[in-house]
Structure formats: C-alpha cells, structure tokens
Amino acid sequence: MKGFIFDLDGVIVDTARYHYLAWKHLADQLGIPFTEADNERFKGVSRRRCLEILLEMGGLQVPGEQFEAWLLEKNEDYLSYISKMDASEILPEVPRVLEFLRERDVPMALGSASKNARPILEKVGLASYFRTVVDGNEVVKAKPDPQVFLMAADRLGVAPAECVVFEDAQAGIAAANAAGMYSIGIGDAAVLGEADRVFRDFTEIRPGFMEHLLQLEIK
Length: 219
Ligand code: BG6
Ligand code: MG
Known about the structure:
Layout: E1 3-6, H1 15-30, H2 36-39, H3 47-57, H4 64-82, H5 94-103, E2 108-111, H6 117-124, E3 132-134, H7 147-156, E4 163-167, H8 170-178, E5 182-186, E6 197-199, H9 207-215
Parallel strand pairs: 1-2, 1-4, 2-3, 4-5, 5-6
Bound molecules: 6-O-phosphono-beta-D-glucopyranose (BG6) and magnesium ion.
C-alpha cells in the first residue's frame, strides 16, 4: 500500500458527535424522533442528503426555501460547536499514526464529505500532514459513491488499489470498497462489517499493523 486516505469526522476528530447534536436539535424542533442509531445513516453523507433523510423520517415535505433555511440553521448550530475546537479534540493516537506515515514519506490525503473540513484541520493543527484535501466543496457524488477517494488517489498519484482508507461511516466503507481500496473501519464492527479490517479506535492500531499495511500487496 502506497497512499493513505483519511476521512475526517469521526476518524481524526470527534466531530461526528457535533453533527449528531446539531441534527438532533433540528429534529427535536420539528418533532421528529432521532436517535444515535438513526444518526449512523447520516455519517459520511452530505449535509443536503442528511436533511432529505431527516424529512423522510418525519414524513415531511417542505418548499425549497424552508429546506435551505434548515440547512443553514443546522450548519450554524454545528459551527457554534466547532468554533471552540482545538488540538485536544483530535481522537486518541491519531497523531502517532500520521507521524508514523510522515516519517516514512508515505503520501496522505483527506477525503471528507464535509464543507467544513479545511477549517477544522487548521483549527486542530493537522493540515500540514495532508498532501491534498478533497472535501464536500468539490465532490459532486456523495459517499457511497467512490468519487471522493478516487479524486484523492489521483491527486496523490497512487493507484486506487494501492490506497488504504480509514472510515467511520458505513457509506464511507462502501465508497472505499467501490474504489477498489483497502478499507479500515474505525468504530463498531457491527456497523462497519463490510470493511477489510475494523478497529474500535486508533489505540488498537499498533505499529506492527502499520508496517503490515505498507508491505501489503494489492487486493
Ligand atoms: C461528513 C459527516 O463527514 O460530512 C456527515 O460524516 C456530514 O455527517 C457531512 O453530514 C457534511 O458535513 P458538513 O460539515 O458539510 O455539513
Ligand atoms: Mg466520518
């Protein structure tokens, strides 16, 4: 494996929690029951698609203007959470893994559905690790479509089959698999069963496994 691609929300930083709180706030306002289990469907999915799913759950159909207003409201709520972010919100042992790869000159990319990805990377001080950032401002086809990861591989100059993807979302694992990449789920194995490997978090990823990935031949 020659290129490493990381999702952002729920992999590098714990922002999946903030997305959930912001959607939950809107759902409560609209009287739509919304649990953390429901939120699994929102992970890796664009803001617009999340709102469509939420309204489907509530059986609501609204005019375009109202839809746009709620999108804005959710994002403002989310921004109020991330405005206070700093390096303390980097998930455990993520810097160790990034450093391991940087020391070996392995090119890394960020592949995220979020339009807020760049400012978050800057806030937590990790931007310099990534040779390229592909985010929700550029991607037209949302995960589970492989577009975001294929763009990242292309910019790294690495063949998709020689890329590893770290993802916390079902849709993200599906996207990595569709791209023909080696997929690593970060989270619950019951949710991420389609991944090639699943770890609860980066504390479970030992240097030996990282060495193994670098030696791994294409699928
Ligand atoms: C993904 C999150 O990374 O970004 C999704 O997993 C979120 O939950 C999506 O909806 C879009 O994020 P944003 O910041 O553009 O609203
Ligand atoms: Mg994610």
